[in-house]
Amino acid sequence: MITFDILTLFPEMFPGVLGTSILGLARRRGLIDVRLHNLRDWSPDAHRKVDDRPFGGGPGMLIRPEPVFRAVEWLESQGFAGRRLLTAPDGRAFDQAMARELAGETRILILCGHYEGFDERIRRGLKWEEVSIGGYVLSGGEPAALVIVDAVTRLIPGALGDPDSPKEESFSGDTLEYPQYTRPREFQGLVVPEVLLSGDHAAIRKWREEEARRKTEERRAR
Ligand code: SAH
Q: Who lines ligand 1 at CB under 6 A?
């Protein structure tokens, strides 16, 4: 069981994704627990404000240090000890290797920024692993947190219907996944490769390996 603690200004962004399909099932099966914490609960301000304008000028608003420090202190007082991820476009690139590594943890904290991001003291004063889900800028860390929870959860044994699913797919080995087909056998003149209908498992395995290698070379060469 992995417990995710998510610090966010917008907990209402999560229930749809967390309640549906594989993530919903993983929660109901007790494989993961996701605890959403609203940073505004730790605002130093009577109006629950958590952001303010940057010193020195410039566009947008920054998340102030107090709510984040107070939230982390509270989690620690509740016994939190685990990985701490801070979502940031300039962080370490999140990939399948990191997802695999996180799938072996029991406690993961994810901090979601918003607006222009964080007061730098949040990064300097608290220990974080800074993680980016890609080379683009989101309006908030919430989609990034959901990406991380999703990629990690599906690697927990029992999360997917077929325990072999994560073994053969893209990034599980040196190659991307081979092409796959289901019914119908012919669709708009496009046919399923004959070998997949042959019942010859050795030939199928060989075809898949070749196709995976071909696709990987083609895509990685770009
Ligand atoms: N001004 C910041 C961007 C802030 S975007 C900068 O230029 O670096 C607001 C928040 O969205 C960030 O604090 C972070 O939590 C989240 N975010 C944006 N892009 C992200 C990405 N690629 N990966 C992970 N989190 C991201």
A: 87-90, 112-114, 116-118, 132-134, 136-138, 140-141, 144
Q: Residue 198 has which token pair? A: 């042959």
Q: Which of 128, 129, 131, 138 to mutate to test the pocket of ligand 1 (most atoms within 8 A of CB)?
A: 138
Query: At the top level of CATH, which class does the domain 2-153 belong to?
Result: alpha beta
**Six token digits for residue 171:** 């990034």
Say if pTM beats, i.e. exceeds, 0.85.
yes
Give the count of beta carbons closer than 10 Å to the beta carbon of residue 176.
20
Tokens of 8: 């966010």
pLDDT in tens, 178-222: 999 999 999 999 999 999 999 999 999 999 999 999 999 999 875
How many angstroms separate the alpha carbon of residue 82 from the centre of ligand 1? 22
Fold observed for domain 174-220: Trp Operon Repressor; Chain A (1.10.1270)
- CATH 3.40.1280.10 residue window(s) in the chain: 2-153
